[in-house]
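Work Package 3 (structural annotation) set out to generate three-dimensional models for the target panel prioritized at the project kickoff. During this period the team completed the workflow that converts sequence records into discrete structure tokens, so that structures can be stored uniformly alongside our sequence database. As a representative example, we reproduce one entry of 108 residues exactly as it appears in the project archive.
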Amino acid sequence: MEGEQDKVLIFKSIINCFELVSGFKVNRAKSQLLTISFSESESSSMTYLLGCSYKGRPIEYLGLPFGGSPQCRHFSDPMVDRCRKRVTRWKADYLSFRGRVTLIKDTF
């Protein structure tokens, strides 16, 4: 683990150099560390050194699961729920009163 801590500190110094050269600031409160093949204690010590939080699995990118199994039924549930909510809002915005009544009668 000692060699890994050295690598984390080098990475932290690279981030600090980037901040100095570019004038940008890395928001460590919003930054998350994702580790692969490290134990929880090693991951927590790395996040402590970097000053960020730990991100476990499942990974989400733009609100969608990333890196899971597409064959699994639950893999696409967040995307289906999002589409369902948007369609529901769309129906409410663009249907007339009579269309809403018809839709409610047909549903129940």
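The longest helix spans residues 2-22.
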